[in-house]
Design brief:
Helix content is about 70%, strand content about 0%. It is built from five helices and no strands. The C terminus is likely disordered.
């Protein structure tokens, strides 16, 4: 019986600490947003030679693995940036052509 009471007390304390932690975290995030601080992972910029290497990759002059090594990106980041780059090409050209056709 005493064990059950002790367990209940510890559970209540842990629950209260968790709620306090979440409240403080939410306040900190809100304050950071009002100050304009960046939250999350840093944005990965495209390297200067991206356009040239992308064109070579699309024309099958280099393989994707080689392209990834040259721009020092891992596979998920690489394909994410390719997708974003192709979307920006499509948006800037206003065409609905395949990206490989736009560059050539």
């Amino acid at each position: 019986m005493i064990n059950n009471i002790i367990i209940e007390v510890y559970t209540s304390i842990a629950e209260q600490e968790r709620e306090t932690l979440l409240t403080r975290q939410a306040e900190g995030i809100a304050e950071a947003k009002t100050k304009g601080k960046h939250l999350g992972r840093p944005v990965l910029e495209l390297p200067k030679e991206w356009d040239k290497l992308y064109k070579q990759w699309k024309e099958k002059e280099i393989k994707a693995v080689e392209f990834m090594k040259l721009v020092e990106m891992k596979k998920p980041a690489f394909y994410k940036k390719v997708k974003e780059y192709e979307a920006s090409l499509k948006k800037s050209s206003g065409l609905s052509l395949a990206p490989s056709l736009i560059i050539k």
